[in-house]
Amino acid sequence: MVLALLLGVLLLGPGAALALEPQRWNLQDQSGLSWSLTLLEQLDPSYPGGLRLRFTDRSGRQALDHSRPLQLRDGLGGSWELENRSAELVPAGETTLPESSAQFDLPRFEPRLRSELPLLLVLPLASGDPAELMAPPAAVVALHDATVP
C-alpha cells in the first residue's frame, strides 16, 4: 500500500496523487425533482485549480443558468455566493454548455461554514426561478472540511 502511494507520488507528481476524491450526493429540489451534487477538484490545466461544486439535473427537465452564482444559506442567516464556473464543463474555447449541469467555485468561506447547521443551496435556473435544495448532513460536513484552512 505504501509502495503504491509512493509510486503514485513519483510518477504523477504530488498534486495528482493528493487530489481530492470526488464525492457525490443525490438531492431533491422543492418540486421533488432529482439532482446530483458533486464536490470535486478542478484538475484541467486549462482552468484555474481549486474545488468545485457541480450540479446535474437527473430529471432531464431543468435548464441551468450558466451566468449567475450559486447561493448558500445556513440555518443562522449566514449566506455565501459561489462564482459560476460552468465554462469549465467543456474544453477551453468551446461555448456550448450542457443545459443540465452547472459548476461553481468553492473557495474558503468567510465567515466559516458550520458543519452542524442545515444548508440551503439555491441553484440558478434558466427559467429565472431557482431550484432550492437542502444539502444532506454528510455533504455539509464535507463542504465544511474542504473549505477550512
CATH architecture: Sandwich
**Total beta strand runs:** 8
Count of the separate structural domains: 1
Tell me about the largest β-sheet.
4 strands, antiparallel
Structural class assignment: alpha+beta
Summarize the structure.
The protein is an alpha+beta fold. It has helices at residues 2-12, 14-17, 137-147, and strands at residues 23-28, 34-42, 50-57, 70-74, 79-82, 101-106, 119-123, 131-134.
SSE topology:
Blueprint: H1 2-12, H2 14-17, E1 23-28, E2 34-42, E3 50-57, E4 70-74, E5 79-82, E6 101-106, E7 119-123, E8 131-134, H3 137-147
Antiparallel strand pairs: 1-2, 2-3, 3-6, 4-5, 4-7, 7-8
Task: Tell me what you see in this structure.
- With 149 residues, the protein is α+β, with helices and mostly antiparallel strands.
- The chain has a single domain, classed as Immunoglobulin-like (Sandwich).
- It contains 3 helices and 8 strands, in the order ααββββββββα.
- It has a 4-stranded antiparallel sheet, with helices on one face. A 4-stranded antiparallel sheet has the order 5-4-7-8, with no helix packed on it.
- The longest helix is centred in the N-terminal third of the chain and has 11 residues.
- It is globular and about 40 Å long.
